[in-house]
Amino acid sequence: xxxxxxxxxxxxxxxxxxxxxxxxxxxxxxxxxxxxxxxxxxxxxxxxxxxxxxxxxxxxxxxxxxxxxxxxxxxxxxxxxxxxxxxxxxxxxxxxxxxxxxxxxxxxxxxxxxxxxxxxxxxxxxxxxxxxxxxxxxxxxxxxxxxxxxxxxxxxxxxxxxxxxxxxxxxxxxxxxxxxxxxxxxxxxxxxxxxxxxxxxxxxxxxxxxxxxxxxxxxxxxxxxxxxxxxxxxxxxxxxxxxxxxxxxxxxxxxxxxxxxxxxxxxxxxxxxxxxxxxxxxxxxxxxxxxxxxxxxxxxxxxxxxxxxxxxxxxxxxxxxxxxxxxxxxxxxxxxxxx
Length: 339
Fold this sequence. Notes:
By secondary structure, the chain is an all-alpha fold. It has a domain at 86-264: Orthogonal Bundle (ABC transporter involved in vitamin B12 uptake, BtuC), CATH 1.10.3470. It is 77% helix and 0% strand. The protein contains 14 helices and no strands. Helix 5 packs across helix 11 (239-261). The longest helix is centred in the first third of the chain and has 35 residues, at 56-90. The protein is globular, with a radius of gyration of 20 Å. It starts with a helix and ends in a 5-residue tail after the last helix. The relative contact order is 0.16. It is found in: Cell membrane.
């Protein structure tokens, strides 16, 4: 009986251990990948931040590859959980912060802020990104709600795609009126992990960590909602409170990722499906799995972008090449079965 009692935990523990090993390997590969070859021993010694940096290779590791790797970890965790949370709350397998206009809302409000106030601090940029992501999420939720205020998956997807197209058009129109805004827009339109400031992570790291923990706390409630809102209410779940909390967390996580790397499409759509395929649909396992799988996929895409061309292909382009076929596959199989 004792073995039978612990057997359900054996498989998730083994899978989590394997995912951690894969993620750690990709972190090392990311620190070694670049135009200049730097040995593992020199890379490791350069990461000793308490030692002074006196070589070009040390500068490359500390101020280029290390921030880039951290950006992949932080943005990947934020985008993955935002996508997983959105798919769970809406019970829509095609839900994604980029597909439903949340990233476009963050980009639009940020660009509007640049056009009116010029340059501003990182926290002001983050505040605008959060406001835009929250407003976009609210508009899509209201537009996509069916009778009785319940979220309709098909209407939600159509509302998100429409809002994203409108906001992207307005953003492009504003940028064409000001060359300086257009230079900033190039960053927001093509997301990249090329972050050069470690201080950003001291600001965003705790925010993403707290939002991630809050998302994991909702796992039992999300399990109940996945069985239907009526049954969830019967089981004592406060569906409205969970949906409101989830909406705020989606906006916060999406804003963090967008403020850090710019919009990166499809990663929040594909990675949760990979986690669900590996760990099952129980949110107690699949949400922590998403935290490990999404940064791994994002770092892998970035490594591919840095390796297959003499210069660099931005990570958002690689994720689009991966995510577009995945989206077609999901549409054919999910919508064909009534989603």
